[in-house]
Amino acid sequence: MQNNNRHYKKFVCCADILGFSNMVSRLSLSKLKNVYNVIVESVKSACHGYTDFTKNPPEYKLPRVNHIWFSDTFILYSNDFRLNTENDWFIAEQIVTNFFQSAKILFLRFMYHGFPIRGVIEYGEFFAQTNQNIYVGKALVNAYKTSLQHEWAGIALTPGCSKKMLAYKDSSKLLISYKLPMKNSKNKTLKVVNWARDASMKDKGDLNEYLRKQFSKYVENRDGGEKLKNTITFVQHVLTKAK
To answer: Fewest beta carbons within 10 Å, which of 27, 48, 73, 148?
Structure first.
């Protein structure tokens, strides 16, 4: 989707695991390797449309989005495309839907295993050359730097990306506007991935208790207490809004 006359852009999601350093310090290397295998399989399953879990290891097919990881940093990125006109949105609809669905599933799979993540999605310049392990661009830098300011577990969009998504007619199925808690600054109303309304959450019972349990596996209270509180507040906001 790219030619010599135009420079198209990508959606990029950069996320990290809350409490990862604490987990590393607590576990032996052998246990850590097993845990990290679970993390990797969670990433792969979130980014592929169909999987065959009867095989060991599972067989993954039809990737929805591109993905890479290093330690506790996980990056999802779309193929190149543009979002300037109504026709662009029509052409890119499947790319957009697949990307945000994968980001939501990534969050849900990680939380299920006790790894709350904090991430940000940006739309902009990003260059990936997989055979050289080169991944650079303003979109990645902006996503990473913005995520460090967020005081919760969840995936939000940058202000620019939030504004861009207002033109996407199906954004309400994937996203919700929310006043996000920030570090050392006023809260900002942004578009965020609405994982709390996913059908899988209905099986969790009391979501507040579910989140407390999942956070407690690896996140120390002194580090994650405020983020847990803010995540629970988000869930309550979503559920109240849905009534």
So the answer is: 148
